[in-house]
Amino acid sequence: MSALLEVRDLTVRLRVGGSDREVITGTTLEIAEGEAMGLVGESGSGKSMTAKAIARLLPAGAGVEGSVHFAGTDVLALSGADLRRHRAKVAVVFQDPRAHINPVRRIEDFMTESLRTLEDVPRAQARTRAADALEEVGIDDPARRLRQFPHELSGGMLQRVMIATALLSRPLLLLADECTTALDVTTQAEVMAILDDLRRDRGLSMLFITHDLELAGAVCDRTSVMYAGQVVETSAADRLHADPLHPYSAALVQARPDVTSTAERLVAIPGRPVSAFEAPSGCRFAPRCPHALDSCRSTEQVLTGLDAGRVRCERAATLRGRLLDPTESPTESEETADA
Amino acid sequence: MLRFLLRRGAMLVATLLVASFAVYGALDLAPGSPIAALTGGRTPSPEVLAELNARYHLDDPFLVRYWNWLTAAVTGDLGQSIPLRENVSTLIGQRIGVTASLVALTSLIIVVGGVGLGLLGALRKGPVDTGVVLVSTVSAAMPSFAAAVVLQFLFGVRLGWLPVLGTGTGFADSLKHLVLPALALAATSVALVTRVTRTAVREELDKEHVQTAVSRGLPWSSVVRRHVLRNAAIPITTVVGLTVASLIALSAVVETAFGLNGLGAYLVQAALNKDFAVVQGISLVLVVAFVVTNLLVDLAYALLDPRVALGSRAS
Ligand SMILES: Nc1ncnc2c1ncn2[C@@H]1O[C@H](COP(=O)(O)OP(=O)(O)OP(=O)(O)O)[C@@H](O)[C@H]1O
Ligand code: SF4
Ligand SMILES: [Mg+2]
Fold it and tell me: For labelling alongside B192, which of B28, B112, B118, B258 has CA 20 to 30 A away?
């Protein structure tokens, strides 16, 4: 599998009131053709910024270091028409479709705009393709929907319109940024199923951003976990729950409310999530990590391969297999580990 | 849409009724009598007074007079000017062209200047934007009478480029005579429209749906045209429309300052002469123009923003 997208040591700084604020630090991830990569982490960890850097949608004045390669091109060097072509190949499905679709234009306009502007598809043909795309995402009476305005459609329906539209221009990569978070639970499940289906049908690569580790496990091949602007772990999506490599991933697994078990399993992660610019030196998770040692705080942690995954924790190998064990209290395990 | 139009039509008629009543009633309550103006302040003999009162129906009850005036006005007959012994409609007809041209030219200046400057400021950040803000601040601080004096001095007296007084004859000459008055009348409004345009475009640029358009790889020019300008057009049209409506009332100041023979200047003159019928007639014409302009603004708003039309259907 060759990598379609390769992000290496990506660091992003945004200008906030005259000073630079680091929001991503040395993020590394790659997505193969046809692969779905999950990106999870608490609020402010830099998930959206990573996606924006890939699609080159960062706010003006953002400083970017590292590299992003997509389908053989150096994304960070693109400008003008080349940049627009890159953006056309990377479709973004945003969280809030109501805000992200122009409210004064008809659905048909929204759906066919790319086809007509970028590919010169004649109007009638573009309309037919849009109607077909609507049917594919399970919207009845597409002809009528195309004539309607966004405010006449429900949130779930609009998100399906967004997905159908994203697929219409035949992108190579889909960036889905919490694309179901704004919907109610049943609609979430429906929209998710449609997205998953269509993506697999087309063999499309996807970066799937979510807070929901379980959802990522269900639809993705691999999952990357972000903390304070850094990727702290990348593992096979289905293995992350059972065998997390990083203490933060383990904490996320345990914090996840699980419908099948009692509330006792819900362990909140102590402490407050931090963003990159406010993170401590050394291991950024150390203040909240039950396994932290002095050396963790004094050394910058690097992303290192461990088994089939990658983890940014010097103690990962030692802690392997014990992170989810409720009988083993952290302090005791510390003693045995260091003895 | 049809229901929307019907509803707005009914509101228009009601507004005009109230306004016409206010126009007629206010002048009826005003001190002085039209007869006094006619007789030059001397007290006429009782026979003459009775004869004049009868000729101009001044003894009828107020409501009857209002009704007669209104029904005649609907057919285009605004009564007689007592001092001039002329049809008010004729008097208005002779001057309405000047005012209409003045308002039209001013509107053009406001749209081109205000929207143009606002766009420039919003889309070109940095020194260009600072310049736009500066110009609009200066021009906002210029009430039309002050602008009139400045423009007359600068272009008329110092540079001698443009005429400063009078209406002119023939199309080109008339237009030339209108340039300075229109600029004076436009000054404050250009500033207002510039600011609203600049803010509206800036706000639209920051909208998420604009980011969507960018993320799809559309050329910047079509993002600006199809999403930023299209959406910003809603507040811009509204403010332009309301500004133009207000010009109708403000034209009197500028017409007087530049000696233009228009409705506004004539209204002032007629009021001083206690020519009640003319004052009522011109007021009515101005009110109708104002109300109709407002209606057009509302229609434009409903056409530009699909969410508005639905709101009216739901109610
Ligand atoms: N426009 C901006 N200007 C300055 N800082 C920003 C801006 N947008 C986001 N940030 C900061 O960047 C950091 C990362 O934000 P990002 O949106 O990538 O987080 P996220 O992981 O997507 O969070 P969430 O789950 O809440 O969407 C945060 O600290 C945030 O405050
Ligand atoms: S490096 Fe130390 S503090 Fe950081 S996650 Fe690993 S064990 Fe915890
Ligand atoms: Mg986000």
Answer: B258
